[in-house]
Amino acid sequence: MKGVLLVNLGSPDSPTAKDVKPYLDEFLMDERVIDVPNWLRNILVRGIILQTRPKKSAEAYAKIWWEEGSPLIVISERFTEKLKEHSDMPIALGMRYGSMTIKNALKELNDKGVDEVLLVPLYPHYAMSSYETVVVKVMEEQERFFPDMKLTTLPPFYKNPEYIRVLSEKIAESLEGFDYDHILFSYHGIPERHIRKSDPTRFHCKIDGKCCQTNSVAHNTCYRHQCFDTTESVKAYLNLPADKVSNSFQSRLPNDPWLKPYTDFEFERFPKEGIKNLAVITPAFVADCLETLEEIAMEGQHQFQEAGGEGYKHIPCLNESDSWVKVMASWIKDWQETGALPA
Ligand SMILES: C=CC1=C(C)c2cc3[nH]c(cc4nc(cc5[nH]c(cc1n2)c(C)c5CCC(=O)O)C(CCC(=O)O)=C4C)c(C)c3C=C
Ligand SMILES: [Fe+2]
């Protein structure tokens, strides 16, 4: 029987340093997130980052935590429940990090007699620290615990016309009545090194002005290209003026160069350039989470207005909106009936 496994990033069990620490440990000890030799990752993560970050992160989580739990988890659960209403296949939800494990989600499917799984990483874009680590982890768990299961993976859907349509409609609906000067597409950042590492040609990605616009097989695994492509597709769909739209990258750690421009620098710069009313969309995330609700909706507004900005609007993620659920339902139905995956 066919079934579906949805996977998102995961959250700590509670917004306390005690629960944030093991979550961050699992997250940052992932070799696809902090991609240095194991001994060095141990020193960086356990010797340095985990000494102070859990407390700081827990304070941030406490600001956005809901009565039912972490927004990322709650929204992903609501999305899963709604998706089940559109499908007769078993559907399970797992998280890459934290206590809602991938192994348990695979077991749930296995117990229902599923032997053919469509893995849906809940990320529109390919990055080794998001999409790839989910795929690798699911394959490891499947091979180890459920060797007879067959796995198929949904490709990154960053330019799928139906995804672009629902994202664009969400933006248009959220912008109604807001007289914006500019729309910032703020994507989660990654170290520039990850872009080079994910380039199978080993020479295409130069992280300059042109490589992302020059056709290449490297784009199949290039996060930067895929983010820019999403923005261009939305811009075309909504017919947005080119000079009112730009990209940036948020949530960097203070190591290495990360993808630029940095979102927080843009919040400082925009008011000085005459941008007083700003809308911010975060399309790297399909569900609102710490990085959208705290960093963009709260801190971002504060930084922008401190720098002289006035009107500010964070556009929510697709979350469990009916239109997005319907798009996902149509993708999994196509796979169920014909084996086809969305282009
Ligand atoms: C778009 C998907 C994501 C990519 C790519 C990504 C890369 C990445 N992240 C970190 C470090 C942290 N990210 C944190 C939170 C977080 N990251 C994503 C998504 C991507 N990360 C989400 C959805 C969330 C929120 C989770 C939630 O519970 O709401 C955190 C934890 C919070 C904090 O302390 O800031 C860290 C740390 C790195 C290093 C990285 C790429 C190398
Ligand atoms: Fe992250």
From TrEMBL:
Protein task: Catalyzes the ferrous insertion into protoporphyrin IX.
Pathway, per record: Porphyrin-containing compound metabolism; protoheme biosynthesis; protoheme from protoporphyrin-IX: step 1/1
Residues annotated as transmembrane: none
Enzyme class: lyase
Location in or out of the cell: Cytoplasm
Gene3D superfamilies per record: 3.40.50.1400
GO BP terms in the entry: heme biosynthetic process
Gene Ontology cellular component annotations, sorted alphabetically: cytoplasm
Single GO molecular function: ferrochelatase activity
Binding site for Fe(2+): H188, E291
Superkingdom of origin: Bacteria
InterPro entries noted in UniProt: Ferrochelatase (IPR001015), Ferrochelatase_C (IPR033644), Ferrochelatase_N (IPR033659)
Keywords, comma-separated and alphabetical: Cytoplasm, Heme biosynthesis, Iron, Lyase, Metal-binding, Porphyrin biosynthesis
Organism: Zobellia galactanivorans (strain DSM 12802 / CCUG 47099 / CIP 106680 / NCIMB 13871 / Dsij)
Protein name: Ferrochelatase
Top-level taxonomy: Bacteria, Pseudomonadati, Bacteroidota, Flavobacteriia, Flavobacteriales
Entry's EC annotation: 4.98.1.1
